[in-house]
Amino acid sequence: MAVAVSVVQSFPSQCFSGNGLRSAIAFEAEKGYRNALGRRMRFSNFVFSKISKLCFRSKHTFVKDVLKEVDSYGIASISDQSKLLNKVSVLMGYDSLHNLIENERAEKQSGTYVKDAENEFDVSLACRRFPSIILSSSPRVELYDGTTSFTERMLLETQSCEGFLSDTMGEVQSTTLVPVKKSYQPVPTEESSKKVSLESQKDAVSVQLSLDSSISCIHGISKKRCHQLENCGFHTLRKLLHHFPRTYADLQNAQIKIDDGQYLIFIGKVLNSRGIKASSTFSIFEVVVGCEITDNESTEHMNDFGDSKRKKTIYLHLKKFFRGTRFTSVPFLRIVEDKHKEGDFVCVSGKVRTMPSKDHYEMREYNIDVLKDENEASFHAKGRPYPIYPSKGGLNPNFLRDIMERVVQVLPVNIDPIPKNIILDFRLLSLQDAYTGIHQPKSINEADLARKRLIFDEFFYLQLGRLYQMLEGLGTQIEKDGLLDKYRKPESSAAYMEEWSSLTKKFSKTLPYTLTPSQLTAVSEIIWDLRQPVPMNRLLQGDVGCGKTVVAFLACMEVIGSGYQAAFMVPTELLAVQHYEHLSNLLENMEDFECKPSIALLTGSTPSKQSRIIHKGLQTGDISMVIGTTSLIADKVEFSALRIAVVDEQQRFGVIQRGRFNSKLYYTSISSRMLATNSDVTSKNDKHMAPHILAMSATPIPRTLALALYGDMSLTQITDLPPGRTPVETFIIEGNDNGFEDVYEMMLDELKVGGKVYLVYPVIEQSEQLPQLRAASADFEFISNRFQGYTCGLLHGRMKSDEKDEALRKFRLGETDILLSTQVIEIGVDVPDASMMVVMNADRFGIAQLHQLRGRVGRGVRKSKCILLASSVSSLTRLKVLGKSSDGFYLANMDLLLRGPGNLLGKKQSGHLPEFPIARLEVDGNILQEAHLAALKVLGVSHDLEQFPLLKTELSMRQPLSILGD
Ligand SMILES: Nc1ncnc2c1ncn2[C@@H]1O[C@H](COP(=O)(O)OP(=O)(O)OP(=O)(O)O)[C@@H](O)[C@H]1O
Q1: 10 Å Cβ neighbour count for 835?
Q2: Ligand 1 contact, 888 CB (< 6 A)
């Protein structure tokens, strides 16, 4: 008997459910036995092949025995043949051979017979054939004769309903992880069955299960389901568990008015339950729950006692559908019926669907909890968050919820790689609790805590990985400790350095203005960093026009003063030329001719002969500083001693491009060529070192984002603007006929008093697809005619670089009064006396982008204005934020919140932003900071993570370690 028991459990009927086999057996039993030997042999071969093909554990003793018997079927006696067919029928989920034959007949007669795998019974058809129980109008459907056969009892012994019920739409495939019960036990109640199976699973699996175990080890999952999950990319438990709920339905306690599709929670009594065998492979389970609901708000129907609450009873029809012959067996249907007995007090939550009969509602996605007594109701009535998963590959949401529940229940406790003290210090949930809390929360608070822990993990491993790689690149323990210290206290990581090199001092004297306090602090911080034994990796941020360029120039002078070289990389040729001219002008004013550094401009448009000369000069060290575009990082550009690389508008470059400078190493022992310096930059050790990197960002990046993008960068911020700047007056106007007329009037007024106007367009040419967009080229003639007596210029990305330079030069020199441009001027263009900007179709630009554009005016002492023309009334609201604030950090934060990091950073940069499946940078900044601290803490204890092998493994699982900058 024990053998039979284990077999029933281990070899699900699904393996034998093909109608072909059933028909063959039915035919053989009815017509066969007396068949000719050859025919019987053919039948036995057929059965043999079916069983061996379908049964995944054909080595099991019982199956081996069955196969042996099948093999000798052709020569067996009639009674043995009959016994064997009976055995195979039972294995197929039928009560007996007789039952199999009946089913075959019934299905053929009812016309529901479909060949083999096509035997899919339509749910709606089944529902029509077996309408819901409408109390008092239809009696309880009795489908069974009430006798429980021996085989049924066997099934009762070996299967708790739980396995079946949770795999609502699939058949069960047992795994070795579940212990087989050897002796008869009473049918367990729901509570006890759950407990026993959970504990035993846990014990059994804890040794073997890990987050990266295959999903096939989930108890009771069918092969079909397994494939389905794998096709959706859920190959491991981790992958599956990381399919997080999109949201949680806020289960409301049901009120008098119930709308279709609402997620509600009800307390009520089971009035009826039934299991229906709709076909040989399809069954329906229905529970009817009667709930009394009150209307707390209504005061209309006062009763005799002055009770203002209206009450009524509604009926919930909870339905589940099962596919597979095993689920149509009498014992199974009995068990599911008995799970919810008449009179049971239950709490039901889920999505309601209205039914044609008044006050009757159907629920197909639901949770049901049997309550001990009425006292428990108040606890449940508070509502449990109901996870709603993002759809994936057409997976049934109920199935997803069920499978998550099962996985969560068997997760071992010891899966957490993060050390216990970090968990305690940062008040985190354990990983196991976090997975439970996110998929099966008892309250929203629990879901929040779980979410926090999982977000923490996303950030933590990112920070840990980055810091780990940086530490690996450093030689000594002191350097490593120094680096960690630096990141531990970012605010005090740079000391104020008053002592500048003589070249830096001389250069600062050539400036036509005095540096603002914030510029001074920034220069000093950078100079301090330049003198550290580790390469600097610093991000210089500041609002538009705050004067970052000069700070970077001063940093370059500091290294040039000690005999090293500097490179200044910008994203456009326009900007390279502008910076080159700016620096050349400043250097011209320098009195001491002797120490004047030689500078060069290298862009894609530099003639090749001149490029060769520049390459040579950089190689020999004759050129101290080069300004250029990405041509600077070309392999053929070799430096004699590159000590600092400034990357302006660094968000326009990828990590790889920035990282390329790291390969341009220099030897720290190089002798100082500029003897005038008294700085102490050079180290005594003769070793090579990567250059210092000073990145500059014009789009202020919120601290959170900066940390996520460049967790390895120190931050310097310029917080004030040069004196004399008046805030740009911003107008937000709807771009209709009247709006344009007003704007043209304002432009005329500005031009009359000698102002210069930028007109910014979203596109160069008019497009048929987007006729509402104003185009720069198309408008040129119109604007020229409209503003006769004033000259117009055109600037856009499709022009040749010398044409662009020329257009900008003319505008700067006042040869043109109006510059029609696209967003090419957004970055870095500096024409201090430009006093007005009009942005057409301003809603096409992001808030941070508009702030950048607006920053092109108001860069001098002239009072400036910026007019944002909205394409429609609806877009006015979003733009109004620019009218209210001129703080770039605030606006960047707003943009981050409104449009997310991808849009704020632009395509290129956001491509380098790691993916965070659950975290949202715009709101989870504080968790990122904590994760950063935690990573520092861990690495502080063990630089190479040798003391935390689990963390190291997890880290390499999550992000294969790669060399920085590549
Ligand atoms: N301390 C200062 N006092 C007066 N003017 C200054 C000062 N510092 C810089 N400037 C001037 O302010 C203008 C803007 O400076 P700069 O181009 O360096 O700004 P930026 O921060 O790079 O701005 P953007 O991000 O818009 O490119 C320049 O014309 C520069 O000469």
Answers
A1: 23
A2: no
